[in-house]
Amino acid sequence: MPPQPPESQVRKDILKFLKSCLGIIRILQIVFGAGLWVTIAANKYEGPIHFVLFVAVLFWLLTLALFFLTLLDKQDLVPLLGGERWLCTNLAHDVAATLLYLPAIGVMIYKTDRNSYCNLEQYKHFCLYKVYLTAAVFACLCCLSYLLSVIYGASRRCRGEQTVI
Question: How far apart are CA 104 and CA 54, in angstroms?
Answer without folding.
Answer: 10
